[in-house]
């Protein structure tokens, strides 16, 4: 739909409007800890860890903090901190919009309470496990930023097993693949000298709710901000889309 953006694009555009920092040091450090715990402390052999480190460096997290997070994940750092666990939460935003939240927490009760508060203050509600996850599918996404030859991208991506791609106006593109094929696609695009910014796993909605009401748009964007500002939250996904003009107007309200 021309002139409309889904949540991933709204999120990227809104970040520019708000001129806010990205993820907090706590959020990025936790992602490194869990990646090192799950796949080992060697970035060369652990794609999840490598991408988490790249995001941390892009946010100017000091190397000492990164090294400490890797050591915590590997169990080689003497710390009294509680063990982090990955949990997925689900809920509904204003107008019945489906919201999926990925969190890393050392205290489930605190995280659930914080999420419930964010939902209730912004016209939504935290739901039960499974209430909206059936509407989403996890995919691997490689994000490109810069001038791109679309014909070349199509050829290289197809050879690497990509499922689809979307060109952006920034300029840039996003290339989508099965979650298990993300590392291979990322490596192929880097070797082909495409301007790879980052690679990530992302939940994509199978259907979208179009938001046209300004009040609902404002409430939804406030809810997204409230959820993403929580240190325990790593990623937020929702199945709404709205006209770009409405998004910019609602962001300024």
Automatic annotation (TrEMBL):
Xref: InterPro entries: Integrase-like_N, TACO1_YebC-like_2nd/3rd_dom, TACO1_YebC_N, Transcrip_reg_TACO1-like, Transcrip_reg_TACO1-like_dom3, YebC-like
GO MF annotations, alphabetized: DNA binding
Residue span, TACO1/YebC-like second and third domain: 84-240
Highest taxon of source: Bacteria
One GO CC term on file: cytosol
Keywords per UniProt: Cytoplasm, DNA-binding, Transcription, Transcription regulation
Subcellular location, record wording: Cytoplasm
Pfam families xref list: TACO1_YebC_N, Transcrip_reg
Record domain TACO1/YebC-like N-terminal: where: 5-75
Primary localization: cytoplasm
Gene Ontology biological-process entries: regulation of DNA-templated transcription
HAMAP family for this protein: Transcrip_reg_TACO1
Family: Belongs to the TACO1 family.
UniProt name for this protein: Probable transcriptional regulatory protein Dacsa_0011
Organism: Dactylococcopsis salina (strain PCC 8305)
Highest classification ranks of the organism: Bacteria, Bacillati, Cyanobacteriota, Cyanophyceae, Nodosilineales
